[in-house]
Amino acid sequence: MNQPAHNPDDIARRRKAARRTALWVAGIAIAVYVVFIAMNTVGK
Questions:
Q1: Per-residue pLDDT tens over the stretch 1-42
Q2: CA dihedral of residues 12, 14, 18, 20 (deg, nearest 10)
Q3: What pTM does this model have?
Q4: Cα angle value 34/22/3 (rounded, 5°)
Q5: 11 CB-near residues (< 8 Å, 6+ apart)
Q6: Per-residue buried b or exposed e for 1-14, using 16+ beta carbons within 10 Å of the residue's own CB
């Protein structure tokens, strides 16, 4: 198994990467939501 990261620089790098990934996923989710709302509005 992997050893836990105890290096503060490594922890900061992982947090930054996790935050970036979370923001990308949130952005995609919002885009899908907006597209569905737009399709519903334009389709009527």
A1: 566 657 888 999 999 999 999 999 999 999 999 999 999 998
A2: 70
A3: 0.69
A4: 160
A5: 5
A6: eeeeeeeeeeeeee
